[in-house]
Amino acid sequence: VVEHGQPDRSVVTTCAYCGVGCAFKAELKGNEIVRMMPYKDGKANHGHSCVKGRFAWGYATHKDRMLKPMIRKSIREPWKEVSWEEAIGYAAAEFKRIQADHGRGAVGGLTSSRCTNEEAYLVQKLVRAAFGNNNVDTCARVCHSPTGYGLKTAFGTSAGTQDFDSVMDSDVIFVIGANPTDGHPVFGSRMKRRLREGARLIVADPRRIDLVKSPHIKADYHLQLRPGTNVALVNALAYTVIEEGLANMRFIEERCDPVDFAVWLEFIQRDENRPEAVAERIGVKADDIRAAARLYATGGRAAIYYGLGVTEHSQGSTMVMGMANLAMLTGNIGRRGVGINPLRGQNNVQGSCDMGSFPHELPGYRHISDEVTRRLFEAAWQVELDGEPGFRIPNMLDAAVEGGFKGLYVQGEDIAQSDPNTQHVTAALENMECVVVQDLFLNETANYAHVFLPGSSFLEKDGTFTNAERRISRVRQAIPPMAGYADWEVTMMLSNALGYPMHYDHPSQIMAEIAALTPTFKGVSFERLEELGSIQWPCNDEHPTGTPIMHESMFVRGKGSFVVTEYIPTDEKVGPRFPLLLTTGRILSHYNVGAQTRRTANTAWHPEDLLEIHAHDAEERGIREGDWVAIQSRAGETSLRAKISDRVQPGVVYTTFHHPLTGANVITTENSDWATNCPEYKVTAVQVRLTNTV
Ligand code: SF4
């Protein structure tokens, strides 16, 4: 740790990395950060932190920070530093010109889960009110959009059902497609504590994650399924519960829609869902499927925790609904220790979705076509809104390649690195006439930008984040914005230059507007947050201090809905040309594409992405530990160093995605979730060959 002397003040704020949302004390000497210390009264972390959060301030003050606005007429020209006024004026004039030349729908905006609720809210407001369309999306598109679709369909709202502390009451913990000890370390530690106390554990994952076997913890069942077969597994589990008479019929009769249940029951009892019928296809023994189903159904309070290993599939939304079916079937919803809990990758995935960052939904998950809601926002915003859903990110990119989409405002997201099929993304960006990037660094997307607006780090922001347990926490400004303005102020200036006036003196006023227009946020304000420390939405007249556990006496939609979840295999299949399946994940010391963690002291602990390959597959290819290998899919090719590992089974390879040099997304394909377009990052058919050159 680099320390710069004794602090003379401290500011309590929230970590800007993962969805745990740990509270920290930023300790400062003047305006210089001395260190970050976990805050003992933080309700999400109870005084704990992980290595990422402790060192996070390193990137905020890194020398690579871009602090001057810049413009250039073409992406082949060098950047020119300009004043804020000139940069904003240029961007606004270009967006207006594009709309005059190509129509109102030729521009759009992207917000990010790295931004505060208030910032995300303003970006969607700018797009809807100033651009006059609904072409707004968020990076949640590429991670948890299936959670939004699946949980809303089954239960009526797009949110995790429990608070983190609820895990301490679980008797059975079922982890599906998540690696909590690396991806969500502080919550992962709490889960391990409960497991050491005796809770039983089921893990469904193509890779042997640490949780499967670590000191004093051993999973009862590791269902090491083939990538892309989640839905077949969850259906087989539900089949077993029904066939063996383990369903909680009282819960189903009291709490669930009888018509939906009858239709689903007929579906789930089909022979194709029998464990013995799916075992070979998914690579898990039928006996293990049956035993895991029995444990989940009869082991006491059973909770499901899941991550991107569920959502980033062609059937991501189907799988979320499959897990909801299983929870309702066994009555594992609506009380402590149970539930369906998405482990959100980024700190404000929940919040950016809550704030209406989707092309079809206004804040609070209300459909844009709903006239009553639209009228409410029209009256507040003094503007007429378009009632048709706009473009999602993939639609914007496709339209740009085809030539009909020409202008994009990107706040805090690096689509050229984080989105699948990099070649397609860059072709789309190259075809646009005005790309505005608002970020801390000149990221990969900025290579295709015409305007660069310096962003503000979490230490410079004032506002709120909402973590994976729906907990709204304050982000407090520790140092003034290094480039002069916070992100919300920049969006406001851009909107004003576009001709749609926005006037806020402080983010608390933006939150007041959100609360006035969003029933689930009715009781949320900065004053109330100071009083309570943090608040889990819904917070309203019925729940004035927030709601730790959802769906206690009835589901948000009334009766819970069982949904038919037919397993449809992904198009991404192995064959002679691409005989292996690649899946991806995270490592403890890094966060997402690594743009932040690579600029902190964490870098040394994981300097490159590695390809984990089973000894059997390595030997067949003459590959030894540390060799450079080429990894090729039908989308592209990249190079990585090999790591021989028995964490993956023969036929499966695995890598992380934290370093741009290896660029895992060069090889991921355009396959996506049928309902939400969330990319299928977790299944790519590949070939691996020895090169021993980079
Ligand atoms: Fe907490 Fe996640 Fe930040 Fe680690 S990265 S300190 S677990 S919020």
From TrEMBL:
GO biological process: formate metabolic process; respiratory electron transport chain
4Fe-4S Mo/W bis-MGD-type domain location: 8-64
Cellular component annotations (GO), alphabetically ordered: membrane; oxidoreductase complex
UniProt KW Ribonucleoprotein keyword: no
UniProt entry keywords in alphabetical sequence: 2Fe-2S, 4Fe-4S, Iron, Iron-sulfur, Metal-binding, Oxidoreductase, Repeat
GO terms for MF: 2 iron, 2 sulfur cluster binding; 4 iron, 4 sulfur cluster binding; formate dehydrogenase (NAD+) activity; metal ion binding; molybdopterin cofactor binding; NADH dehydrogenase activity
Top-level taxon in the UniProt lineage: Bacteria
Family that this chain belongs to: Belongs to the complex I 75 kDa subunit family.
Name of the protein in question: Formate dehydrogenase alpha subunit
The species this protein was found in: Arboricoccus pini
Lineage: Bacteria, Pseudomonadati, Pseudomonadota, Alphaproteobacteria, Geminicoccales
Full-length numbering of the shown residues: 230 to 923 of 948
